[in-house]
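Deliverable D4.2, example record:
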Amino acid sequence: MAIAKKASILVGTSGFSYQDWVTEFYPPDLPKEKWLEYYAEHFDFCELNFSYYRMPTEKQMENFLKYPLRFAIKGHKSLTHDRVETPQAREDFLKSVSILNQDGHLGAVLLQFPYSFSYLPGNRKYLSILLEDLASLPLVVEFRNPGWIKDSVFAELKQRGWGISMLDSPRIKGGMPAYEAVTSDIAYLRFHGRNDENWWKGNNVSRYDYEYSQEELEEWLPKIADMARQAKTTYVSFNNHARGQAIKNANQLSTILKQAKLLEN
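Output generated by the structure prediction step:
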């Protein structure tokens, strides 16, 4: 399952600043301000999620330029959850995140929409305007409402050159169905875990508290190979961050991909 020479697969985690990763990944005596430097010694890609909770600043983005990492950055909640239609939030986000475009640091901007963002005319219009306003960035949309998973949506995203995130998440009532879609030069896959019990009632830790087995990761091998054939760059992010499970599973998947000659040793 060889991939095109120009294609690349980068595996990492959603976030890096977790206290419960100490001893599980970070050495106990390592200062917190050194965590990302240590992370960069083990991975080439990291998904930044602090930007969902607080609007990133240009100074913050400049600080990330010193790390030899490709970043995906999550869209601020004003764009995806609060869905503020005034342009100021979009302009602030665009101005700051554009800093990461230097030297190829910015791999993707992840716009994760909640389950409440259903497939309705008003939401479709909002999404189109938002993506157009941020079109200078490498955009990837993540839906959590299954109503969006249809060929017409995939076709529209592909026509505009906007990416979509594939998910590994619980297959439960109201949850996302299994689907495969690459709609831009960026292929994106997020492992959220399969914690059926806590998916709807859990918090942002317990919902993603799950450790994948070797067999569950191997199931994705042919799909990731196909993603890499269709895209210039494929990003794989593990969001099952509790107790360092994301680190363990990211390393496991990297080994699987190397054995399949999809990643270089």
